[in-house]
Every structure is written in structure tokens, then in C-alpha cells.
Amino acid sequence: MKTLVVYESFFGNTEKIARAIGTALGLADTDIVRVSDLKPGQLTGLELFIAGSPTRAFQPSPETKTFLKGLPSGALNGVKVAAFDTRAVMNEKTPGILRFFAGLFGYAAEPMAKMLIKKGGTQVLAPAGFFVLNSEGPLKEGELERAAEWVKGIQ
Ligand SMILES: Cc1cc2nc3c(=O)[nH]c(=O)nc-3n(C[C@H](O)[C@H](O)[C@H](O)COP(=O)(O)O)c2cc1C
Predict the structure, then answer these.
(1) pTM
(2) Phi and psi (nearest 5°) for 32?
(3) From ligand 1's centre to the CA of 119, what distance in Å?
């Protein structure tokens, strides 16, 4: 299945998840490309398109949003799509106000999935979030394995 995994990553954590996903899918058929390095034409002939972004201020990164919004209408017609994000672990040490706003405004993957569907894609996996322990990482233990499991759920 010809696949493109596009990601944005400031500290490398989302990139690690993107690579774990690519490896799980089989690298021969899968391109894994940073959104800023994407070349015209890399979206043509795709069967599966997966987009990943760090959650920033409860949303996808600005570059991810610009890219997804800028896709021509119908660009993903007939393409299977899925979205993931990375996000901070929220626990009892997280300031209450942050937890409140995270509950209210959510994370990057859901709005990304909506944008992919709006461009014609057929969602084949529920949006997923993978946890980092601090803003710069590392990823929570087991998240690379969870990402590999996530993509194996594709129909
Ligand atoms: C400016 C900034 C804003 C952030 N906003 C959120 C947020 O709203 N929700 C959240 O869960 N994590 C937030 N984080 C944590 C990021 O999600 C985390 O840095 C990211 O997952 C790391 O991925 P990367 O290494 O690929 O950049 C924020 C981090 C930064 C630096």
C-alpha cells in the first residue's frame, strides 16, 4: 500500500512516532517526510496518508495546520487517512488550569483528522495521541510500540 507519513517535530518525539509507524507499515512502500520537506507530487498515487504533529497550544503546529488547510479540495479523494499527535502527560502535578484547558480545547489529532476528511480522505483509524513526559520528551515508555500497534488496526 503506497503510503506517506508526514510529520512536524520540534524536539524529535513526533518524528520517532512517525518512524515507528513507517517501520510497522513496511518501509519499502512508505515515505516518511517532514512537512517542510514535502515536494509537490508526493501526494499523488497514494493509498494511505498519515499526518502527525506535536500538540501546541491545544492544536496542531502552525505549519501542520497551514499544510493541511492548503491541500486542494478533493486532494485526498479515495485515499485512506489517519492522524496522530504527541502531547504532554497530564497528571496531578500538571497545573489545574492547563488540565482544564486541555479538557476544553483538546489536542492536535482530532482537528487534523477533520481536515483530512474535509479534503476527501476516508478515515481508517481513530485519531491517536502519544505521550511525552516533558515538553522536549522523552516519549513515555511503550509509546513507540503503541504507535506500531495503532497502525496495524488499518482495514
Ligand atoms: C509552546 C508549546 C506548547 C505546547 N502546548 C501543548 C498543549 O497544548 N497540549 C499538550 O498536551 N502538550 C503541549 N505541549 C507539549 C508538546 O506537545 C510536546 O512538546 C511535543 O509533543 C513534543 O513533540 P516534538 O518532540 O515532536 O516536538 C506544548 C509544548 C510547547 C513547547
Answers:
(1) 0.97
(2) -120, 115
(3) 26
DSSP letter string, 60-117: --HHHHHHHHHSPTTTTTT-EEEEEEEEE---TTS-HHHHHHHHHH--SHHHHHHHHH
Res 58 pLDDT > 80: yes
**Grid coordinates of 151:** 497502525
Residue 57: CB within 6 Å of ligand 1? yes
Average of per-residue pLDDT values in the chain? 95
What mean pLDDT comes out for the span 57-84?
Answer: 97
Of 10, 55, 110, the residue with max ligand 1 atoms within 8 A of its CB, to mutate for a pocket test, comes to 55
Cβ burial, residue 100 (10 Å; 0-12/13-18/19+) = exposed
Q: Which amino acid is at 30?
A: T
